[in-house]
């Protein structure tokens, strides 16, 4: 019975986070956005809802709010869904959107978007090869493999962006200080 109550709490919070993500997307991010694409709004809101739910599960772990087994189940489920969205859905939809804007490929856009997605998956997988994240006890598309690749690529990109910002900001505002 407590698993059912815990699941209803998690589903209710996911629905609330989804609604908040939808409102934030519509009112703040793209209030002047003329092209309304429903799939973009849904993907953003679902990603936002599951990210907030994972943060909520961390807080629940610290406070001991839900049952331990139900927290673990919802953590694994949220992790699988967010990996599915980040590694499979978002790159596929970006490729589909790119191919849809090319008039020559408009009739076969699903085929070419699948080819773009397979190219992304190849480079996504090859980018993680130099790092010691392979383990023989886990499968190729296991949660551990995907999390490690997303983590390595995410940390690398954040380091590049912060380094660029640390160099670009003083260079941009140097003219103000020279006066």
UniProtKB/TrEMBL annotation:
Keyword Oxidoreductase appears in the UniProt entry: no
Organism placement in taxonomy: Eukaryota, Metazoa, Chordata, Craniata, Vertebrata
Highest taxon above the source species: Eukaryota
Stated family: Belongs to the Golgi pH regulator (TC 1.A.38) family.
Protein name: G protein-coupled receptor 89
Catalysed reactions, semicolon-separated: fluoride(in) = fluoride(out); iodide(out) = iodide(in); bromide(in) = bromide(out)
GO cellular component: membrane
InterPro entries the record matches: Golgi_pH-regulator_cons_dom (IPR022535), GPHR/GTG (IPR015672)
Domain spans labelled Golgi pH regulator conserved: 142-178
TM annotation in the entry: 6-26, 38-63, 75-98, 110-127, 147-169
Entry keywords, A to Z: Membrane, Receptor, Transmembrane, Transmembrane helix
């Amino acid at each position: 019975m407590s698993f059912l109550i815990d699941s209803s709490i998690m589903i209710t919070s996911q629905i609330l986070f989804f609604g908040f993500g939808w409102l934030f997307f519509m009112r703040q991010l793209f209030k002047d956005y003329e092209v309304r694409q429903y799939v973009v709004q849904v993907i953003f809101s679902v990603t936002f809802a599951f990210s907030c739910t994972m943060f909520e599960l961390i807080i629940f772990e610290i406070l001991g709010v839900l049952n331990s087994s139900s927290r673990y189940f919802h953590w694994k489920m949220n992790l699988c869904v967010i990996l599915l969205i980040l590694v499979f859905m978002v790159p596929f939809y970006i490729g589909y959107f790119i191919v849809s804007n090319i008039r020559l490929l408009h009739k076969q856009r699903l085929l070419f978007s699948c080819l773009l997605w397979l190219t992304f998956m190849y480079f996504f997988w090859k980018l993680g090869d130099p790092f010691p994240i392979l383990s023989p006890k886990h499968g190729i598309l296991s949660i551990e493999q995907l999390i490690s690749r997303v983590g390595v690529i995410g940390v690398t990109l954040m380091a590049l962006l912060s380094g660029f910002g640390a160099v670009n900001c003083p260079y941009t505002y140097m003219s103000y200080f020279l006066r």
